Amino acid sequence: MLVEEGFQGFSMNRLAKVCGVSVATLYIYYADKDDLIKKIGVEIGKNFFCTMLKDFSPDMPFKEGLKKQWENRAKFALKYPNEVACYDIIRHSAHGDYILSESLKDFKTAMGSFFHNAVAKKELTPIGLEVFWSIAYGPLYTLLRFHKEGKSIGGSAFKFSKKTMEEAFELVIKALTP
Amino acid sequence: MLVEEGFQGFSMNRLAKVCGVSVATLYIYYADKDDLIKKIGVEIGKNFFCTMLKDFSPDMPFKEGLKKQWENRAKFALKYPNEVACYDIIRHSAHGDYILSESLKDFKTAMGSFFHNAVAKKELTPIGLEVFWSIAYGPLYTLLRFHKEGKSIGGSAFKFSKKTMEEAFELVIKALTP
DNA sequence: TATAAATAAGCGAACATTCACTTATTTTTG
DNA sequence: CAAAAATAAGTGAATGTTCGCTTATTTATA
Q1: Residue A119 and residue A75 share a domain
Q2: What is the mean pLDDT of residues B73-90?
Q3: H-assigned helices in chain A
Q4: Domain range holding B16?
């Protein structure tokens, strides 16, 4: 409902009707509407970041590790487009901060280590953490947004593919490695 | 109101009260709530993309042209944070597609020319348009999002600066130029 | 030019509907 | 049969929207 109709079309009464349960039943499992939204957001976020770290270790060689993260991220986006879209909506709502801080908890430590390891091993140009992040993931996120919207800049049709991803990935590596 | 309280806290009656007019007056100028939101979104979007093209020409040398776009984009984000945040909220609502297609109309032609010119002049590695866009602007957008949220990955405080922007920009140029 | 007619702009109060949430009752389960 | 789970049927408050009416400005008429 959130994805298809946005926050405006999302209400407890309508949700209950669609689910085939009474409104009151919702309030057995969730304290209130905010609680429900938060819990959905956190649940998606947990899965999201858990998937991101699959077969990944902060000790991996930089290029290999980043590639794995791109693959995991892309796989999740393609497999669960609704969940991703829903997460995006909730993150852009008033609960955004809470959701993010809650779901990033485990993820951020792993990423911090990965970054510092790579710099120490001289596999990564020493730059600010934010700049690193923006170059390393910004392009991927942009491509996935194009895919979600079904079209790229200019309105022409676009579909995310392994080939597109690898083309972008090589350029990112070119930018980040000494 | 949209920025400070989100879609949930935004109603026609409250808007009218804050504006110091009657609710009925709003309906003289806007057909309904959706119409009002759309028109605000399109207005911001038009300004947004107009600013992006200030002092820019598709014939400029690639590096110079891209730098100008980065500067224009960053300047707008820092000067009108509320407008940008509002635009972001509306774009993530049910009206997102309409707003985007409406405000991108003029912008996309200029960007297409810029891209093709640069490839023809061999100032830009020949790649897919979407890959180009993702590398060229993805990092900037990511940095501006960090700035808006006031913190970067991991929760540490972050403030967008010219220095940060230039560090990222040089890496993007490194990735995109032959 | 003075006055009447027409139009534009705005308003408060009300409309039906929907909202998040609750209570009192019934059904299911162990 | 007792506890837990689910429900139907509400609650008042808030929602988007409209109605009948007033005030201010412009245009047309005598």
Answers
A1: yes
A2: 93
A3: 2-5, 12-19, 23-29, 33-52, 62-79, 81-91, 96-103, 105-120, 129-149, 162-176
A4: 1-30
pLDDT in tens, B152-171: 776 788 999 999 999 999 99
CA distance B141 to A130: 12
In this complex, how many residue pairs, one in chain A and one in chain B, have their CB atoms less than 8 Å apart?
A: 147
Predicted model pTM? 0.88
Question: What pLDDT score does A106 carry?
Answer: 75
Q: Is the distance between the Cβ of B24 and the closest atom of strand C smaller than 7 Å? A: yes
C1' (C3) to CA (B62) span, angstroms: 70
Residues B55 and B126 both lie in one domain? yes
Same domain flag for A25 and A80:
no
Which 17-36 positions of A have CB less than 7 A from strand C?
A: 22-24, 27, 32-34
Interval B45-66 mean pLDDT: 94
Which residues sit close to strand D, CB under 7 Å?
A 13, 20-25, 28-29; B 10-14, 23-24, 27, 32-34
Distance CA A86, CA A91 (A): 8
Phi, psi angles (nearest 5°) of residue A72: -60, -45
- pLDDT per residue over B5-33, tens digit each? 888 889 999 999 888 898 999 999 998 99
